[in-house]
Amino acid sequence: MNLVETLRLALGALQSNKLRSSLTMLGIAVGVFSVIGVMTVISGLRGSIESGLNVLGANSFQFTKFPAINFSDPRQRFANRRDIDFGQAARFKLLMSETAAVSLALNRSGIRVSYLDRRTNPNVRMTGTDENFLSSRNFDVAAGRNIGPGDVEFGRAVAVIGNGIAERIFLNEDPLGKAVRMDGQSYTVIGVLAAKGSSFGQSQDNFVVIPITQFMEVYGRARRSVGINVQAVNQAELVATQERAIGVMRLVRSLEPEDRNDFEVFSNESLIEAFNNIAGVVAVGAFVISAIALLASGVGVMNIMLVSVTERTKEIGIRKSIGAKKRNILNQFLIEATLLSMMGGLAGILFGVLGGNIAATFFNAEMIFPWGWAIAGLLVCSAIGIGFGLYPAYKAASLDPIEALRYE
Question: Whole-angstrom Cα distance, residue 326 to residue 398?
Fold first, then answer.
């Protein structure tokens, strides 16, 4: 028997029991789908991680009350910390003014911006900040000007709006100098930001900036923790600037030498590292789930092949009586088991890549085909077919032809 004939017989045997074969392949497909789908999402996110997580400007780091990403510690631990109030933040900015560019920020979401009878949806993000914020977050002003120190000092009711807002409520009008309303307050538009697109499914053009002092005048100062962004002069000065900034922050927070930091420091690198740690945990979880599913599927493959051997005992006896050798029977049943596993694996890979890319599009990640994981999945499925099909194949090949012919 040549390989082509063996393959033809194996496929014919699988087709003769379509439902049983399909259910066995489904089990394998589920196991492969879980790991391929997860790794497709992670690979797609990693492909765009530098642009997606690059929420801070170059050579920047940030001080906040809460960690940027946290899954290990209860939030209450950080909620009990003192807020970084405006007085502390302003003093920090003054002490760091000769070393780095410092920006202060308070945020609010769910804002509606209106002009005449036109308005946005109530999903605009507002940031109360200062003159250094836009450059620290890589925003460019397309028209007009940025918030200035005087705007912050006197708490002027001015605003710099995102490109998406300008296009929605001003249509073909020039927004500069026009008055918009937000939460019942009137603001004069002094600038329009350049279009920036979206990051992880969130538009960066649906955004408005006002002076931080005006923000606190409208929304109050109580129970607000100011976010502080520090931008070093260059990459070479980043580490030294961060060490000095931590010391200054401890000073303005009145911490003793033996006290632990009661604030968080993070940068682009730390965000990327945190993402990779989370991705690693998710990948391990996917491997564990898929390993359990594939183990159960392997047992299913062995079971269906043992049933097949029993059902085809007389056929095996006839083939042996007309000259089929032991290795021919062994190869046929091994190929059947391997085909069963690989077909299930191919289905799992196909739906895993499709589902993973669909999920990745919600984060605006690039669509990919994880060739490495796909090849690894096929190799694993082949190993399952051979490993769990070996005993049934050996049992079939070892049948005595006379006894097999007498089997009913």
Answer: 7
